[in-house]
Automatic annotation (TrEMBL):
<keyword id="KW-1133">Transmembrane helix</keyword>
<dbReference type="GO" id="GO:0022857">
    <property type="term" value="F:transmembrane transporter activity"/>
</dbReference>
<feature type="transmembrane region" description="Helical">
    <location>
        <begin position="335"/>
        <end position="356"/>
    </location>
</feature>
<feature type="transmembrane region" description="Helical">
    <location>
        <begin position="202"/>
        <end position="222"/>
    </location>
</feature>
<feature type="transmembrane region" description="Helical">
    <location>
        <begin position="170"/>
        <end position="190"/>
    </location>
</feature>
<feature type="transmembrane region" description="Helical">
    <location>
        <begin position="234"/>
        <end position="252"/>
    </location>
</feature>
<dbReference type="Pfam" id="PF07690">
    <property type="entry name" value="MFS_1"/>
</dbReference>
<dbReference type="InterPro" id="IPR011701">
    <property type="entry name" value="MFS"/>
</dbReference>
<feature type="transmembrane region" description="Helical">
    <location>
        <begin position="402"/>
        <end position="422"/>
    </location>
</feature>
<feature type="transmembrane region" description="Helical">
    <location>
        <begin position="143"/>
        <end position="164"/>
    </location>
</feature>
<dbReference type="InterPro" id="IPR036259">
    <property type="entry name" value="MFS_trans_sf"/>
</dbReference>
<feature type="transmembrane region" description="Helical">
    <location>
        <begin position="107"/>
        <end position="131"/>
    </location>
</feature>
<dbReference type="InterPro" id="IPR020846">
    <property type="entry name" value="MFS_dom"/>
</dbReference>
<keyword id="KW-0472">Membrane</keyword>
<feature type="transmembrane region" description="Helical">
    <location>
        <begin position="54"/>
        <end position="72"/>
    </location>
</feature>
<keyword id="KW-0812">Transmembrane</keyword>
<feature type="transmembrane region" description="Helical">
    <location>
        <begin position="273"/>
        <end position="296"/>
    </location>
</feature>
Length: 486
């Protein structure tokens, strides 16, 4: 038996307390997202929202959260990671409370924006806090448990969202976050120690604004392409904004002293491919629960609670795979875990391509969902450990925010693209019924048309998952630990 020093044992005890705090943050955000994915039709019916408003109940959160992650990584370096992290809990909790009192759909969208800012404060710092707390040889275990808690949140979220939507009312979809947020805030304040602040470097305000505008343009184009067609002025304008701003961002960020998109930190092949693989994995998996929940409600006519139960194989797979991958991290490299997770994700989505028919037996759908969940849990554990251990300690705050922003870009594009692909197969007059989950009661012919949209969505997600597998294979960790070494 290997002797363990008292300092090492003390650090490890503190590290696991840190995991309990950061895991509460992931649970809070995970439940908030997964409950709404299932209960969205109930909210849409309550406000009688159209397709545009319906999509932006989800997309507003994803867009703002993604665009502000790097910003709050930098702010935390300047003002203190613990302080920004706890402020995120407070802001998210208050916004959840107010969201339940929304008098109209646009007030709800505004509260989702405030939630997104609080979530960005939490997400930009949680991984860095864990990396700082754990001894390097135990980091993969900590990451496995940390990511596994997101699976637990996604496990409880769909069922909870469906149950709340069918019994307590849509307001409780948001109010259920309030007690959890208060507990997380108090426990975090008691547990977390102050961390050394980073260098007092300026925030790249122009870069943040340009990134937000570019993401808004491409997301607007993606979300409206299915509803209005590629020739729509809205789609053309959104795409044009993105195409104009993308090269401008490159020019501005190259001249910025402390850019929000510090591409120099991702110059090496391993980091570049690992982060692109993360983008593809997020793009392939993020809309899955939303797509399948809509499938069961809009195409099969199930209620929200039953639809929530039906998507459980995804979080079950993640909940099982994440801690197992974390434990295997002491024997297998993060590189191997990333590739294995990518392969399982692609197998799951490949299986789901065969299920775009209302008569498909559920067990086939369940197998595809479970494989996709296992793949995501394994990939996230391996990929996160691989990237975080390759970065210099002084850049963890900003770079982790950038890393999560890249992943969240995949989340944003996944939801916008999937909703657009699904609704593109039915006429404009029926798209309201897709979001409200009333289509199955109106027209069997329309349901058959809708299946074409689901088939397109699964096919595109499968292709992206295959690309992610290739990128994960290219992200071989270099022998040298210096940044960017090949």
């Amino acid at each position: 038996m290997v002797a363990v020093s008292p300092d090492y044992a003390s650090r490890l005890r503190y590290a696991w307390k840190v995991v309990s705090v950061t895991s509460l943050g992931l649970v809070l955000i995970g439940i908030a997202g997964s409950t709404l994915n299932v209960a969205l039709p109930t909210v849409v019916r309550h406000f009688r929202a159209g397709p545009f408003e319906s999509g932006w109940i989800l997309l507003a959160f994803l867009l703002v959260n993604t665009a502000s992650l790097v910003f709050f990584g930098r702010v935390a370096d300047l003002l203190g990671r613990r302080e920004i992290y706890l402020a995120g809990f407070a802001l998210f909790t208050v916004a959840s409370l107010l969201a339940g009192f929304s008098p109209n759909v646009w007030f709800l969208v505004a509260m989702r924006v405030v939630q997104a800012i609080g979530a960005a404060m939490i997400l930009a710092n949680g991984t860095v806090i864990i990396t700082d707390a754990f001894p390097p040889d135990r980091l993969s275990q900590g990451m496995g448990v940390y990511i596994g808690t997101l699976s637990v949140a996604q496990l409880a979220g769909p069922t909870l969202g469906g149950l709340i939507a069918d019994t307590a009312g849509w307001q409780w979809i948001f109010w259920v976050n309030v007690p959890a947020g208060v507990i997380a805030l108090v426990w975090g304040a008691v547990t977390l120690r102050k961390m050394p602040r980073g260098p007092r470097e300026p925030v790249d305000a122009l870069g943040n604004v340009l990134v937000f505008a570019a993401l808004s343009g491409v997301l607007l184009a993606l979300s409206e392409a299915g509803s209005r067609g590629l020739s729509s002025p809205v789609v053309i304008t959104g795409a044009a904004v993105f195409l104009v701003l993308a090269p401008l961002i490159v020019v501005v960020e190259r001249r910025a002293s402390h850019p929000v998109l510090n591409m120099g930190l991702f110059a090496g092949r391993m980091l570049a491919c690992a982060n692109l693989a993360s983008l593809c994995n997020a793009l392939a998996r993020s809309a899955l629960i939303l797509v399948v929940a809509l499938y069961f409600q809009s195409a099969r006519g199930l209620d929200a609670f039953t639809a929530g139960l039906s998507v459980l194989p995804v979080p079950v797979g993640m909940a099982l795979a994440s801690p197992i991958a974390g434990a295997l991290g002491r024997r297998l490299s993060p590189y191997a875990l990333s590739i294995g997770g990518s392969v399982f994700s692609a197998l799951g989505l490949g299986t789901l391509m065969l299920t775009a028919d209302p008569a498909t037996p559920y067990w086939i759908i369940g197998v595809g969902l479970f494989l996709a969940g296992c793949g995501s849990g394994t990939f996230l554990t391996g990929n996160t450990t691989q990237v975080m251990t390759a970065l210099p300690a002084g850049s963890l705050g900003v770079v982790n925010g950038f890393r999560i922003m890249i992943m969240n870009v995949g989340v944003v594009l996944s939801v916008g693209m999937s909703l657009s692909l699904i609704t593109s197969s039915v006429g404009p007059e029926l798209r309201d019924q897709v979001y409200a989950a009333t289509l199955a009661k109106l027209s069997p012919v329309a349901v058959d048309q809708l299946m074409t949209g689901f088939q397109r969505a699964y096919t595109v997600l499968f292709a992206v998952a295959l690309l992610g597998t290739l990128l994960a294979a290219l992200a071989r960790t270099p022998r040298t630990r210096s940044l960017g070494a090949e």
